[in-house]
Design goal:
By secondary structure, the protein is of the alpha/beta class. It contains 16 helices and 15 strands. The strands form 4 sheets. The protein has a 7-stranded mixed sheet, with helices on both faces. α3 links the parallel β2 and β3. α7 crosses α8.
C-alpha cells in the first residue's frame, strides 16, 4: 500500500514538520536579506517556507517550483517566485544564483529501466545547471538506499565538502529517508581524493546512520549572494529575447551533462597560440565559445559573454560566353559569421555583436578589448610571449653574416623580430601539446618576401644543433 500511495502522489513525500524543525537547527544565514534559497520540487512549499522562516529569510528571497497544479497553487500563496514545470526538462535558473537548495525530489523512477528521479534532480540543479554558488549549502532528502547507489554516492563525493549524513528519527522514517547536508565545491573532486571519499561514503551508507537531532549551534552558514541577478522561470513560457538571455546566463545545451561528457570523451583542450593574440584573433576565439560565461565590463557595466557563429550564405551568378553559347554558373558560398552576445548582469538586457563590424564595435573600447584579451589568454596562454630565455638569446647572438652586411641602424646578425620568431618556433617544437602530451613534429613558417625566412630557418636548425651538443 505504501508503494501505491507513493505512485499516486507522483513520488513526492513531504518531510514531516517535526523533522524540518530539527533540520533547521543545523543551518543559519549570514545575512537573511542577502541570500536566496530554493526548493525545485516543493510540493506545497511547506518545508521550504518552514526552513526560510526559521532562518529569517523573507518570502521574496524564496524560490519554489512544483509540477503538480494544485500543489503549485499552494506555493504561490507563499511566494510570488513560484513556477510550475518539469524541473529536469524545463525549469531554468542562472548559474550561481542560489545560496541554498533544499532538494526532496520524487522517490522512484519515471519508467522501467530509467535512472532514479532523485539523481536526475541532483544532477540538474548542481552539475548541469550550476544553480548553487560555490560555498552554498545543499540539503538533499531521499531514501538511504538511494544515497548508497554508486552513481549517487559518486555525485556526493565529487561536488560537496563538509558532508553530514543523517537518518530521520525512527518515528518519522517511513521510507528509510536520510538527509545529506553539504557545501558546494568550486571544482569537482577527482583522482585519489575522489576514490578515497567514495570508499568512505560507501562504507558509511551501508551502516546505520546517526539520527537527526536538535543542535545547540548551527554547523552551516548560508553565504551572502555573489550574483546580483536571479533567473527562475519555466522555459516553455517566454519570448525569443528571454530565451537568448537564458542561454547566455545558464550556458544552454552546451552546459548539460550529456554535452560535457561527449566533449570530455573527445579530449578537447584549448589550442594554445604560438604567440600573443591580436585583438581580432582573440575576438574570433571568443566567437568559438572559449570564454563562455566570463564576466567582462562593457561601457562600465559587467556583462556575461557567450560566443557562437551563424551561417551567412551568399549566392552569385557567373556568366560565361563562348561563341553562340551562354553559360550561367550559380555559386553558393557559405561563411561562418562570428557572433558575440553579452547580457547585462544588472538588468538582463542583451547586446549582440555580429560579423566584422560587430566585433570592431565590441573592441572599440580599449578597456573592453584588454579585458577580453586577458580572459582569452587565461584559458589559452601563448606558448611564447616574447619571453626569450637567456640560453636561446646567447645562441642567436652568435649568428653573424660573414660578409658583414647590415641594415642601417642594426648590428650584424639576426634582427630583433627574427630572433623572436626563431625563439617562438623552437619553444613550440619543444613544448608538449596539452591535448596529446607529445611534442609537435613540425610547423610552418610563413612570412612575406624579404622577411628573412631562409635566415630564420638556418637559425632554427643551428639552435637545435647547439641543443644536441649541450644536452
Amino acid at each position: 500500500m505504501a508503494r501505491l500511495a507513493n505512485t499516486a502522489n507522483h513520488g513526492f513525500q513531504a518531510l514531516d514538520p517535526a523533522a524540518v524543525a530539527l533540520l533547521a537547527t543545523y543551518v543559519t544565514a549570514a545575512n537573511p536579506a542577502a541570500c536566496r534559497i530554493a526548493d525545485p520540487c516543493a510540493g506545497e512549499g511547506a518545508a521550504a517556507w518552514q526552513l526560510a522562516s526559521a532562518w529569517g529569510i523573507p518570502a521574496d528571497r524564496l524560490y519554489l517550483n512544483e509540477l503538480h497544479t494544485e500543489r503549485a497553487a499552494a506555493c504561490r500563496g507563499i511566494t510570488p517566485n513560484t513556477t510550475s514545470c518539469d524541473t529536469v526538462r524545463w525549469l531554468r535558473a542562472n548559474r550561481h544564483g542560489l545560496q541554498l537548495v533544499y532538494l526532496n525530489p520524487p522517490f522512484g523512477t519515471q519508467a522501467a529501466g530509467d535512472e532514479r528521479s532523485e539523481l536526475q534532480f541532483f544532477r540538474r540543479v548542481i552539475e548541469e545547471g550550476n544553480w548553487l554558488q560555490s560555498g552554498g549549502i545543499a540539503i538533499l532528502v531521499t531514501p538511504q538506499d538511494v544515497f548508497a547507489k554508486p552513481a549517487v554516492t559518486q555525485h556526493l563525493a565529487r561536488h560537496y565538502d563538509n558532508l553530514t549524513i543523517l537518518a530521520l528519527p525512527a518515528a518519522l522514517r517511513r521510507w528509510r529517508e536520510a538527509i545529506v547536508i553539504g557545501v558546494r565545491r568550486a571544482r569537482a573532486r577527482s583522482g585519489h581524493a575522489l576514490s578515497d571519499l567514495i570508499t568512505t561514503l560507501t562504507t558509511q551508507l551501508a551502516q546505520s546512520l546517526p539520527e537527526l537531532t536538535p543542535q545547540v549551534a548551527p554547523r552551516y552558514t548560508i553565504p551572502v549572494a555573489t550574483n546580483s541577478t536571479m533567473v527562475w522561470e519555466d522555459a516553455t513560457i517566454g519570448t525569443p529575447d528571454q530565451a537568448t538571455t537564458d542561454v547566455v546566463m545558464t550556458g544552454g545545451a552546451t552546459n548539460t551533462r550529456a554535452y560535457r561528457s561527449a566533449i570530455d570523451a573527445l579530449r578537447v583542450a584549448h589550442l594554445r597560440p604560438l604567440g600573443p593574440l591580436s585583438a581580432t584573433a582573440a575576438a574570433a576565439r571568443i566567437a568559438t565559445g572559449e570564454i563562455n560565461g566570463a564576466t567582462i565590463v562593457i561601457d562600465g557595466r559587467p556583462h556575461i559573454i557567450k560566443g557562437s557563429t551563424t551561417e551567412d550564405q551568399t549566392v552569385w551568378v557567373e556568366t560565361k560566353e563562348e561563341g553562340d553559347t551562354t553559360t550561367l554558373i550559380t555559386h553558393h558560398v557559405t561563411r561562418q559569421v562570428p557572433v558575440v552576445m553579452a547580457v547585462d548582469v544588472a538588468d538582463g538586457s542583451v547586446r549582440r555583436y555580429e560579423g566584422d563590424a560587430g566585433l570592431q564595435k565590441l573592441l572599440a573600447d580599449p578597456a573592453t578589448a584588454e579585458a577580453l584579451l586577458a580572459a582569452i589568454t587565461a584559458v589559452a596562454p601563448p606558448v611564447y610571449a616574447y619571453d626569450m630565455d637567456a640560453d636561446t638569446a646567447a645562441t642567436l647572438a652568435t649568428l653573424k653574416r660573414k660578409d658583414g652586411r647590415t641594415l642601417p641602424g642594426y648590428a650584424n646578425g639576426l634582427l630583433p623580430m627574427q630572433k623572436h620568431v626563431v625563439a617562438g618556433v623552437t619553444r613550440y617544437l619543444t613544448t608538449p601539446d596539452p591535448r596529446t602530451g607529445t611534442r609537435p613534429k613540425g610547423t610552418l613558417l610563413n612570412a612575406e618576401m624579404g622577411a628573412g625566412k631562409s635566415t630564420m630557418g638556418i637559425a632554427i636548425a643551428h639552435w637545435f644543433h647547439q641543443q644536441s651538443l649541450t644536452k
